[in-house]
Amino acid sequence: MNKKEKKVLDLLKSKGVSQQQLEVLLESKERFISIRQKRRTRKYKFGIVSDTHLVDKSCALDELHDFYKRCKREGVHDIVHAGDILSGMNVYKGQIVDLERYGIDEHLEFGLKNYPREEGIKTYFILGNHDLDYKNTAGIDIGKHLAKRPDLIYVGMYDATLTLNGITIGLHHGGGGASYALSYKLQKYVEKIGSDQKPQIYILGHYHGAFYMFYRNIHCFLPACFQKPTDLSVRFGLPNCVGGWIVEVEIADDECNSIDKITYEFIPYY
User: How would you list the strands of the sheet with 159-164, edge to edge?
Assistant: First the structure.
């Protein structure tokens, strides 16, 4: 071998590829051999919530506080929220009778005072269609106002991709009604993501159901909600599955921060 060839071989050996494995790869024209070597990993745990609908009379506020306390006990420091923090005021006809408070000032005051606050936990949130109502009604972006609390980090309206502990998490708040199967809306949204824009984890709010799947090499979640059944949800047969997720990932010490392992636990409230 010349110096360049030896340098390449030494580099491959440093990555755990033997000369014999290299020869097999070079000789193979119709198959690809994936070599997964032992590597160092680190663990990271975070929480997922969505559709909390604060100010609505059906908001499961006690359950939401309980979930945050559980996250703290389990060593969670970051929670992501997939939209609809507050209820809005004119999202559907007759909504006024479903509200604890009325007026944007009172809604913001209620949200700032009552959204869970646990020492050491930060919440990264996007806004949803109920939150958008404040902008449509009065031109107010409530995300900026809620972010006055240092533990509430506003990352976008309807959609955002953030990096926490080296992994990319996509947050999106969907639209329209529920589908015939829990997986359908999630699948269709994931299919629209460009191949060079895929996050490692994708969370789709709005549909109030709880579901996980691994699709297009993305760990995909429907995050459920913290709103109890309402007259509207019962009439339309919507799930209103109350609860949140606690997710733990093992992240490889490589240039991609690859997820080597994921475990997830859904915390339901009946």
Answer: 159-164, 167-173, 201-205, 218-223, 210-215
